[in-house]
Amino acid sequence: MDLSSLTNVCQTDAAPPIVIVQPVEDPIKEANREPSPSLLNRIGTFPVVIGTLVVLKMFGFALSGVGDNDIFWHLRNGQFMVAQHRFPAVDTYSYTAAGMPWLSHEWLSEVVYYAAFRALHLQGLWLVTALIPAITASVMFYLAFQRSKDPFAAGIATMLGTALMSVGDGPRMHHLGWLCFVVMLAILQKFRLHRSGPLWAIPVLFCLWINVHGSWPFGLVVFGLIFLAGFIQNDLGRLQASPWSSAERSRLLITGLASAAALFINPFGYKLVFYPADLFLHQKLNLEVVQEWRSLTFVGMTGVWVGVAIVALLVGTALTDIRWRIDDLALIVLVFYCGLSHERMLLPAGIVLATVLAPFLGGLSSYDPAHERKALNLTILAGVLVTLVVVFPSEKKLQRKIDALYPVHAVEYLRAHGGGGRLFNEYNWGGYLAWTMPEQRVFIDSRTDIFEYAGVLREFVDVIRLKHPEKVLEKYHIDSVLITPNTNLNVWFDLQPNWRLAYHDSVSAIYVRTP
Fold it and tell me: 287 near 341, Cβ under 8 Å?
C-alpha cells in the first residue's frame, strides 16, 4: 500500500469512540474522611470561651447603670429628630443660651439610643450601652488572637485594654465612634498581614463615623501613621520594617483620599468636618473644667491599669525576642501620649494596646486546637450565657440607679409647686431636667460647647467657686436654685437673708428667693 492509499484509509476509517473513565474513590480514604464539624464543635473551642469571657466583662462594666449626664439631652435630641423630621439648629432647652445656633454633631448616635429607649425604655438604653462596647472588645480580642495565636495571651491583653476603656463607660455616644475605629484597625491589620483586604469599607466607615461621633480625626491620624510607616524600607535595629509595594501604596492613598472625601457626606457639610478643630481652638474652658479632658493623674484604678500596661510592654520587650513593628511602636507612642494628656483618649489606647501587647504574651498557654476539651468549653459557654441572662437588669433596678444620681424627687416637688421659674441648676442635671421636665428651661446642661460660646459656662464656674455668685443670680433674675447638698455653695445660700431652703433630700437641695 502506498502513502496515498494509507491516507485514504485514515480519512475514511471511523474515529474510535471516546470513553469517559470515572475516578475510583479510595475506599480507605473515603472511610477516614472526617465529616464537617457541627455548630457545637465550632463554638466549643477555647478561643470562643475566652472571647465570651471578654464579652461578660463588658456587660459587667455596663452594670453601673444608664445615668450618664449627657444621655438625657441626647434622648431629647433624638426625640425631636424623630418627631419633627429635622435637626435641632438652635438651643431651646435653656434660657441662658436660648436661640443660639447649635450643631448636633452626634445626631446619628442620638437616633440609635433614642430608638433603643423607645423600644425597651431604660433596659433598651442599657442593652445598647453593654452591646456596643462588647462588640468592640470582641474585635479587639480577634485582632490580638490573630497576632499572638494564643487565646490566653489575647484574652489577657484584651482584658487589660478594656480596663483602660472604663473611663468612658455608660451610655455614651463615643462608643459607636470607637467601634468604627476598631473595625478600621481590623481591616488595616488584615491588609498588613495578608496584603489584601476590604479597603473599600474604610471610606464607608468614615462616612458613618463623622455622623456618630467627633473622634474620627484620630482615625485619620492612625490611618496616616500606618500608611507612612510602610515607606520605611529597612529595619531599624530591633524595629521591623514592613514596606508597602507601589501598588499597595497606591491603594492606601486612594483609600485615604476617599475617606477624607466621605467626611463631607453629612447633614451639616463642612461645619461638621471642622467641629473637632473648633473644640480645641475655641473651647478652652471646656477642656479645662471637664474631667475627661484633663491629663491623667494616676489616682485611682485607671491610673493603676495604665501603669500595668506600660510595665507589661517594657517587660515583654526586654524578656522576649519579638521585634517591634515600626507602625506598632508609632501607634503605641501616639495613643499613650494622647491618653496621658486627656483621660478620655485612653479608650483608643486600650484598643491599640490589646493588639500590640498580645504577641509579647504569646506562649503563656499550651493551646493546641487538636486537643480541645469540648465538653468543658461548652459548659463554660453555657455558664456565661446564663450569667448574662441573670445579670440583665430590670427596669426598676435601673430606675433606682437613676434615683440615686439625679433629683427625681426634687423634680416632683417643683412640679407640685408650679415649676422652678428662673432655675439655677447643677451642670450634670441640666440634661435630666430637659428630658423629664421639658417645660422647665434650665440654666446650663452638659452641652458644654454652646454654653461656653454664650459665656454661661464661665458664669456657672464662678458661682460654684463662690466668685461673687450674687452677680450671676441677679443678672439672670434667678428665683430658685437646684444643687447638690453639703457643699460650700449650700453654706453660702444658708447665710443669705433673701434665700431659704425649701426642699432637700440625700441627693438634692432647692433654695428659693424670699422677698
Answer: no
Question: Which pLDDT does position 26 carry in this prediction?
Answer: 52
pLDDT tens-place string over residues 59-80: 988 888 888 889 999 999 999 9
DSSP string computed for 86-140: S---B--SBSSSTT-B---TTHHHHHHHHHHHHHHHHHHHHHHHHHHHHHHHHHH
Query: Is 508 in contact with 484 (CB distance < 8 Å)?
Result: yes
Cell of 510: 432647692
Residue 290 is classified by DSSP as: S
The continuous run of DSSP H or E covering 504 comes out as: strand 499-504
- Work out the number of other CB atoms within 10 angstroms of the CB of residue 106: 23
* Cell numbers representing residue 344 in the block: 478620655
| Pair 465, 497: CB distance under 8 Å | no
Greater confidence, 391 or 217? 217
* H helix intervals, 362-427: 374-391, 395-405, 408-416
Q: How many helices (H) and strands (E) does the chain have?
A: 25, 6
For the segment 438-449, the average pLDDT, to the nearest whole number, is: 94
β pairing state of 423-425 and 324-325: unpaired
Helix (H) or strand (E) holding 141, with range, is: helix 107-148
Mean pLDDT for the stretch of residues 148-170: 91
Given this model, what pLDDT does residue 13 score? 45
Distance in angstroms (rounded) separating the CA atoms of residues 136 and 352: 12
Are the CB atoms for 406 and 506 separated by under 8 Å?
no
| Dist CA 327 CA 244 (whole Å) | 12
Do 158 and 134 touch, CB atoms closer than 8 A? no
Residues 382-389: what's their mean pLDDT?
A: 93
- The secondary element (H helix, E strand) that includes residue 305 is helix 301-319
Give me the pLDDT at residue 31, please: 47
Would you say residue 18 has pLDDT above 70? no
How sure is the predictor about 415, in pLDDT bands with cuts at 50, 70 and 90? very high
The model's pTM is 0.89
- Per the listing, cell 483608643 goes with 348
| pLDDT per residue as tens digits for the range 82-119 | 999 999 999 999 999 999 999 999 999 999 999 999 99
Taken as a whole, the chain contains a residue count of 515
The grid coordinates of residue 336 equal: 499613650
CA distance 326 to 232: 9
DSSP secondary structure, 147-191, as one string: HHS-HHHHHHHHHHHHHHGGGG-SS-THHHHHHHHHHHHHHHHHH
Residue by residue, DSSP assigns 59-92 as: HHHHTT-S--TTHHHHHHHHHHHHHHSS---B--
- The whole-chain average pLDDT of the chain stands at 90
Q: 92 burial class (0-12, 13-18, 19+ CB within 10 angstroms)?
A: middle
